[in-house]
Amino acid sequence: MNATFLRKCALIISLITGLVLGLSFSVRANEGAPEPEKTAPGPTVVEVPVLLMPIATSSGRMHYYAYLLIQLEIPSPNDRWSVEDKIPYIQDAFVRELHARPNVQNDDPMLIDVPGIKARLAARIHDIFGDDRVGEIIFKELALPRGAQSSE
C-alpha cells in the first residue's frame, strides 16, 4: 500500500471519530438542560413605525414636533398577522388624526394630552377593523423637548 492511501484512510477515520465524539458530547449537554417553561400565550405586541406628531395650539401656531413610538396590544396571537398586514393603513390613519387637531391640553404646547390622543387613535383603529382585534394602544416612547410633559 502506498503512503498517500494510508494518509487518506487516517484522515477519514479521524473525521468520523471527531463527528461521533462531537455528537455524543452535544447529546450529553442537552440531557441536563431544563425544559423550557410552557406558559399560556399572552397578548402580542405589534409596533407601528415612528410617527412625527405636530404640537400646535388651537390658533394653529406650530411649536414643535414630538416623536411617537406606538405599540398595539393584540389580545389574540391569531390576529397578529391580520393587524401587521394593515400597518400601512393604521400608520396613515394615525398621521391624519395627529395632524387634524391640537394634541395639547388647555392650549398649552408644553402639556401633551396623552389620554385624548389615545382615545382618538383607538377610534381610528376601530374604523379600520370594526372589532376588538386591537386591545390597548401603548406609547412606548414619546420624545418631547425639554420642559414639555405628558398628561398621563
Describe this entry's structure for a reader.
This protein has 152 residues and is an alpha+beta fold. The protein folds into 2 domains: 1-36; 44-150, 2-Layer Sandwich (Tetrahydropterin Synthase, Chain A). The chain has 4 helices and 6 strands. The strands form 2 sheets. It has a 3-stranded antiparallel sheet. Strands 3-4-6 form a 3-stranded mixed sheet, with no helix packed on it.
**Biggest sheet: strands side by side, in what order?**
1-2-5
What top-tier CATH class of the largest domain fits best? Alpha Beta
How large, in whole angstroms, is the Cα Rg? 28 Å
Distance between the termini: 85 Å
Strand content: 25-35%
| Strand elements, count | 6
Task: Give the helix proportion (percent range).
Answer: 40-55%
Structure, briefly:
By secondary structure, the protein is α+β, with helices and mostly antiparallel strands.
Task: Record the SSE blueprint.
Elements (H helix, E strand, L loop, with lengths): L2 H29 L12 E13 L5 E13 L5 H6 L1 H14 L3 E2 L2 E5 L1 H16 L7 E7 L5 E2 L2
Parallel strand pairs: 4-6
Antiparallel strand pairs: 1-2, 2-5, 3-4
Jot down its keywords.
Tetrahydropterin Synthase, Chain A; three-stranded antiparallel β-sheet; three-stranded mixed β-sheet; 6 strands; 43% helix
